[in-house]
Amino acid sequence: MAKILVVNKFYYRRGGDCIYTIDLVGLLQSHGHDVAVFAMQHPETLQTPWNKYFPEEVKFGLGTSSFKAILRPFGTADVIQKFNALLDDFKPDIVHLNNIHSQLSPVIAEVAHGRGIKVFWTLHDHKLLCPRYDCLRNGTICEQCLDNLHNVVKHKCLKNSYIASFIAYFEAKKWNRDRLEKCTDQFIAPSQYMLKKMKSGRFTSPKITQLYHFVDEKKYENVDYKKEDYYCFVGRLSPEKGVATLIEAVAQLPYKLKIVGDGPLKEELITKVNKNAFVEFLGFKSWEEVKTIVGKARFIVVPSECNEVLGLVALEALCLGTPVLGARIGGIPELIEEGFSGMTFESRDVEDLKVKIEMMWNARFDYETLAEYSLQKYGSESYYRQLMNIYKQSV
């Protein structure tokens, strides 16, 4: 069995990349692999035998630690030293990277590659193509940096700041395509959308493999497929997730909407709803709570207004037997088979979203069959077999 070092800048249940990383560690261990973890220190970091090798936390913002945070994206001595110490101790055959930019930096890929270790990199955002991760500028999709990285400075894409944007520009210049390809054996794109986007960014095709994310089947046991009279949104309450557009679309609809999540738009959205009895804000919920809420919903809405690499919330809903109404943007449409697993609508189009919500409310789906099909397609065992093939082809 291979010894595998899994890397992500955070190692607690913070977001999609973190959940994937934690589940990947569990999956590999369940198949007998010796697995170690490398991440940044954080108060909520899960305890592992390897925490002593984690570099200290850096925070991006004003304060005494800001200079250290500015240097970290370029590869600092403390990260290199701790990563080398872990490699010396664990001696992995494979290093599997996830989100590493800024807090850890791709220097760890170069370190591992320089020691003859195979490096695989699962992509969770657009950082290798866009200095600000999300291909957004002033709330709209922008891909100008695919042709000229200097546009990040020109448009002050990072925090509307020339300083922050210059740092992102120099980070992208240092960790350029040629340098990243040289130290990475295979990039793993979680969707066909991301595969195509990497190719449009002139990454070499043989270096990229497409493999959808997976779910842990054990988390989907004992699901009741009896639906209740509501639909839901699950995610961060921020502009790019499209929840403001959703609120606008549902203003005149007589169907119960439950909103799960927190974020910077929460108070504004609550005010906008203005005591609408058909909209309920539930705040942040644990997985078990989300499982119950989503599992009993007629459908979920994924109204994203940015190019999602895949759409983990949609994938999870399908595995609970809950259809998805998703925006036709990024990797989301790949998860939806019209009529069987849900419907799609034009991103940012309030009227189209409103019409599709009505259609979804009145449609009928075979929830149990949907769950069985999705668990088979996105289950961990299928994922494991495909991942092992990717490892073997490059080892």
Structure overview:
This protein is of the alpha/beta class and 395 residues long. It is 38% helix and 14% strand. A 6-stranded parallel beta sheet has the order 2-1-3-4-7-8, sandwiched between helices. It has a 3-stranded parallel beta sheet with strand order 9-10-11, with helices on both faces. Strand 10, helix 10 and strand 11 form a beta-alpha-beta unit.
Q: TL;DR of this structure?
A:
The protein is an alpha/beta fold and 395 residues long. It is 38% helix and 14% strand. Helix 3 packs parallel to helix 4 and helix 9 crosses helix 13.
Core attributes:
395 residues; alpha/beta; globular; 6-stranded parallel beta sheet; 14 strands; 3-stranded parallel beta sheet; single chain
Q: What gyration radius follows from the Cα positions, in whole Å? A: 21 Å
In percent, how much strand structure appears in the residues? 5-15%
Helix content: 25-40%
Order of helices and strands: EHEHHEHEEEHHHEHEEHEHEHEHEEHHH
Mean pLDDT: 93
Secondary structure category: alpha/beta
What is the topological layout?
Blueprint: E1 3-7, H1 16-30, E2 34-38, H2 66-71, H3 77-90, E3 94-97, H4 107-114, E4 118-122, E5 136-137, E6 140-141, H5 151-154, H6 162-174, H7 177-183, E7 186-189, H8 192-200, E8 208-210, E9 231-234, H9 243-250, E10 257-260, H10 266-273, E11 279-283, H11 287-296, E12 300-302, H12 312-319, E13 324-327, E14 342-345, H13 350-362, H14 367-378, H15 380-394
Parallel strand pairs: 1-2, 1-3, 3-4, 4-7, 7-8, 9-10, 10-11, 12-13, 13-14
Antiparallel strand pairs: 5-6
Helix pairs in contact: 3-4, 9-13
